[in-house]
């Protein structure tokens, strides 16, 4: 009897392993570490999807193990089961020009406006356009972080940016964004910023707090204004062809668990902001929380940015359309 039981147990184990191996596997490649909020959010997504037991599992590849974003996108367009994160500025460069507006300065007055926008009909037209290019946007309600400005001189109002050289990523939208605010934007690789601040080649930079602290920029620039000039939310995309090959149950499970994991990520991100702010203050950074009057000086200048729509290849009246989509 024991022998029969052992045989049955072995058979059950083999069948279980066979079923597991038959699962469709989605590889998620990203440049962050597993210990960052986005990494923790992805681990939550992995767990939630596994609980659905729909024959679809997630494998995580942090720290750019699968390659850079462009490499991953190329593989997706070949139908590979791969996912990565990208933002509006990237999608604008990729071909969906209007999505670039979400990276414009002071477009949002809070995260709730971001989440209202991604539930709008306008956002669906953008994701449909992206899907026509071969990329399926699966989840967008993930806060990557509010982008703040760290400088070598105090900045409280927009006029304080005048004459300052501020490092920005090398894309047109963020370059023009700081230009209209009054600064002189300098496109530069993130890895070069510490030395440039140290040598006085630039006067400041911008990024979420976790990035500013992680790159140790606060060691050579001691003034932080919590301006939140861009509320940077993450979009998770995969191959449209691959997504459409899934069963309806798998598609629904992937989307629903991705959204649920996004809420978890956002809680982690908010806690991380407080944590990194505390560390920076403890290490000698002067943190300034702008008043509504201060923020209005930035918003007023930022209006000029949204008059440059033709420069970015935007649809006519895009700014007004997006404000209406947010109920403003």
Structural write-up:
- The structure is a single chain.
- It is built from 14 helices and 9 strands.
- By secondary structure, the chain is of the alpha/beta class.
- The protein has a single domain, classed as Bacterial extracellular solute-binding protein, family 7 (D-Maltodextrin-Binding Protein, domain 2, 3-Layer(aba) Sandwich), CATH 3.40.190.170.
- Helix 2 runs antiparallel to helix 11 (248-282).
- The relative contact order is 0.16.
Outline: globular
Q: What is the tally of helical segments?
A: 14
CATH topology call = D-Maltodextrin-Binding Protein, domain 2
* Main CATH class: Alpha Beta
Strand content: 15-25%
| CATH-scheme architecture | 3-Layer(aba) Sandwich
Number of domains: 1
CATH superfamily: Bacterial extracellular solute-binding protein, family 7
| Mean pLDDT metric | 92
- How much helix is in the residues? 40-55%
Largest sheet: 7 strands, mixed
The ordered H/E elements are HEHEHEHHHEEHEHEHEHHEHHH
Structural class from helices and strands? alpha/beta
Write down the Rg: 22 Å
Question: What are the low-pLDDT stretches, counting only 5+ consecutive residues below 50?
Answer: 1-21
Find the count of extended strands (DSSP E, 2+ residues): 9
Distance between the termini: 73 Å
Quick structural gist:
48% of the residues lie in helices and 20% in strands. By secondary structure, the protein is of the alpha/beta class.
């Amino acid at each position: 009897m024991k022998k029969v039981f052992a045989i049955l147990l072995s058979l059950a184990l083999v069948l279980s392993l066979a079923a597991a191996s038959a699962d469709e596997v989605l590889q998620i490649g990203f440049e962050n570490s597993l210990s960052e909020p986005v990494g923790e959010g992805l681990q939550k997504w992995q767990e939630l999807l596994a609980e659905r037991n729909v024959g679809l599992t997630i494998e995580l590849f942090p720290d750019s193990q699968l390659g850079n974003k462009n490499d991953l996108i190329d593989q997706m367009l070949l139908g590979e089961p791969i996912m990565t994160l990208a933002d509006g500025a990237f999608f604008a460069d990729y071909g969906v020009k209007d999505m670039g507006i979400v990276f414009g300065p002071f477009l949002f007055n809070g995260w709730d406006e971001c989440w209202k926008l991604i539930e709008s009909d306008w956002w669906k037209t953008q994701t449909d356009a992206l899907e026509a290019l071969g990329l399926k946007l699966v989840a967008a309600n993930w806060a990557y972080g509010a982008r703040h400005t760290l400088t070598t001189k105090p900045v409280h109002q927009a006029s304080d940016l005048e004459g300052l050289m501020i490092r920005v990523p090398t894309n047109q939208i963020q370059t023009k964004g700081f230009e209209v605010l009054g600064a002189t934007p300098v496109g530069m690789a993130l890895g070069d910023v510490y030395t440039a601040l140290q040598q006085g080649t630039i006067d400041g930079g911008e990024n979420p707090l976790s990035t500013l602290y992680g790159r140790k920029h606060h060691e050579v620039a001691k003034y932080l204004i919590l301006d939140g000039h861009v509320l940077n939310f993450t979009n998770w995309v995969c191959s449209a062809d691959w997504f459409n090959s899934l069963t309806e149950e798998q598609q629904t499970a992937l989307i629903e668990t991705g959204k649920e994991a996004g809420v978890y990520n956002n809680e982690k991100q908010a806690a991380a902001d407080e944590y990194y702010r505390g560390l920076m203050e403890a290490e000698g950074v002067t943190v300034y929380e702008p008043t509504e009057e201060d923020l209005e000086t930035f918003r007023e200048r930022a209006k000029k940015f949204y008059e440059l729509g033709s420069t970015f290849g935007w649809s006519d009246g895009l700014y007004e359309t997006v404000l209406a989509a947010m109920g403003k």
